[in-house]
Amino acid sequence: MEIRNYKPADEKGWVRCRVLSFLDTAYYDDVHREKETFENPSIELVAIEDEQVVGLIDIEYDTKDEKVCSEEGTGGMIWHLAVHPDFQGRGIGTALMERAVEEAIKLELEFLEAWTRDAGHSADWFEKNAYRKVDEYYHLYLSDEDMAHSVQPGDDNLQPLYMFAQYTGDDIEQFDSIERKYKCMCYIRNL
Predict the structure, then answer these.
(1) Cβ neighbours, 10 Å, residue 41
(2) Are strands 111-117 and 75-83 parallel, antiparallel or unpaired?
(3) Of 49, 179, 181, 186, which residue is 20 to 30 A from 65 by alpha carbon distance?
């Protein structure tokens, strides 16, 4: 396996790797048809095996003029970290992370920040890799049935079929009947 900088020719493999790695996670519907580009500078790495993208990590980082991260100081936001499901459990994610940490240290970043959901193994993975939880809120996916009981649109011509929402309040229990409810947690790794 080789870890190297992302190249535009990797885009199709990058998209496939990301989509497949997210299928069995709480992010299964976060599908993109092309690779995201960033306004700020970024660290973009891929893991290649047999000429296939088997892992990826993208970190957009703060500049003195533009803040990406929520914490004070100069940091990097991990937007994507994924390993193709056929290659998981081989240390590819850890290898990508450690290479990204090396690059971040060269750039004099002070920390890396990542947001993830409580479903699956990603929160445990971040904790095992020297990250600490510093914040949290909830993502809610409301079906048309959920909204019929809790959301009243102001326009009778507007009939929402589903809604994605962020909840930062203290009364999450009011949404106990919603099937897709995820705690989103922010993890920080000091460099």
Answers:
(1) 14
(2) parallel
(3) 186
118-157 as b/e, with b when 16 or more CB fall inside 10 Å? eeeebbebbeebebeeeeeebbbbbeeebbeeeeeeeeee
pLDDT for 152 beyond 60: no
Distance CA 97, CA 148 (A): 43
Alpha helices in 23-160 (DSSP H): 92-106, 122-128, 144-150
Hey, what amino acid is at 76? G
pLDDT in tens, 39-76: 999 999 999 999 999 999 999 999 999 999 999 999 99
Whether the model pTM is above 0.70? yes
Domains of the chain: 2-190 (3.40.630.30)
Are the CB atoms for 130 and 93 separated by under 8 Å?
Answer: no
Dist CA 69 CA 52 (whole Å): 31
